[in-house]
Amino acid sequence: MALQAALLPSTLSVPKKGNLAAVVKDTAFLTVPQKLRVPSLSVRAQAAATAPVATPGASTSTKDAKKTLRQGAVVITGASSGLGLAAAKALAETGKWHVVMACRDFLKAAKAAKGAGMAEGSYTIMHLDLASLDSVRQFVDNFRRAGMPLDSLVCNAAIYRPTARTPTFTADGYEMSVGVNHLGHFLLARLLLDDLRKSDYPSRRLIILGSITGNTNTLAGNIPPKAGLGDLRGLAGGLRGQNGSAMIDGAESFDGAKAYKDSKICNMLTMQELHRRYHEETDITFASLYPGCIATTGLFREHIPLFRLLFPPFQKFITKGFVSEAESGKRLAQVVSDPSLTKSGVYWSWNRDSASFENQLSQEASDPEKARKLWEISEKLVGLA
Length: 385
Ligand code: NDP
Ligand code: PMR
Hints:
Layout: H1 2-7, E1 72-77, H2 82-94, E2 97-103, H3 106-115, E3 123-127, H4 133-145, E4 152-155, H5 176-198, E5 205-209, H6 233-236, H7 256-282, E6 285-289, H8 305-319, H9 325-337, E7 346-350, E8 356-358, H10 368-381
Helix pairs in contact: 2-9, 4-5, 5-7, 7-10
The structure holds NADPH dihydro-nicotinamide-adenine-dinucleotide phosphate and Protochlorophyllide.
The site of NADPH dihydro-nicotinamide-adenine-dinucleotide phosphate has 31 residues, from α2.
EC number: 1.3.1.33
Enzyme class: oxidoreductase
Protein name: NADPH-protochlorophyllide oxidoreductase
């Protein structure tokens, strides 16, 4: 059956497109948008739920009543397409958020923002290639030099190489899917934690995208190849491929689909470890989410054409797990800014009526011992320990 053939993990190999789009380094000096200038009086003490939004340039006037809130600043990685772009648009359109689109392809991001109808001045594009730890550090430097506050960080970018039977590697020599989806974001989140701490915004949030396919307590998570980190021996060995394994669990052969799903477990474990280590002390909200199956995005660009053709109708009419890019963007925007989603350490999902709920992670994706071990190995790999 064509449907089954296309949707079941394929052993077919197809010519692979270049993984990384042409990179445009943009180091243009950035100025802080007026609305983002931090008011002299901190508003952190107020509940996000009750704080009205500032008109441009407005600031807090008295200690108690009529608090106004400056515009928030949110960094979204991979905002040049799919979910990241839709969330950037949804947040920018509210006027409450200035969106920093952290993207590897500056021109693509600029076109995407324009094409989506995002108003000039509602966003800033900054270069970030998560496949290079130097680029991550450079981004953090550039962001700080731009003088903006950081109120929310969304680790959204990802690559998925479902048909790859041989690994590719980041600039630092780590397998690409885990390198980009997990290690790049791990370093980014760790470095920007300081900036989130400094923010005077009432509800500061750090969000990392997870997925149903990384959770083996679901039907979708049981479609082979199943996610599984094993004892992390491949990661501890540096995911290099040549003299060791390119897979986190240390498997000899490379499986691109599994590498993606493994990276999503890492994303969900990292969010929980951040919560355990920093929530109480900083009051930052750490969250992850499964936004629904956004079957039309660029994530599936390397899949076989038949899959790309059949996957959206399969998700729409058979699993009924399909969501449009616009709807998923609203969901992610909710996790960034909805006053009712301030609980930390949660993996959010949505039911068929698009109502959010706290979802259960699989045993592995919520294993605190594994999260600690993952944290310690990742620290070494990104040069933080
Ligand atoms: P897209 O492919 O549309 O978007 C991925 C984004 O990541 C693109 O902007 C891409 O940039 C960027 N990116 C890829 N590699 C790098 C890199 N090296 N450095 C910086 N940016 C990079 O996919 P989605 O919108 O579907 O995925 C977004 C998130 O949602 C991912 O974390 C994914 O795991 C998650 N998710 C998606 C689901 C789905 O059904 N689609 C379901 C569950 C979770 P460029 O435009 O230059 O390629
Ligand atoms: Mg899956 C309840 C059913 C359900 C849901 C919500 C998803 C989501 N999928 C479901 C079921 C099935 N899928 C079934 C029954 C099959 C076998 C026919 C199936 C197959 C399948 C494939 C081959 N599904 C896939 C693939 C992919 O390549 C996608 C993937 O694993 O990406 C890592 C995928 C997905 N299914 C989903 C979601 C959300 C994805 C993609 C994205 C992701 O996890 O980020």
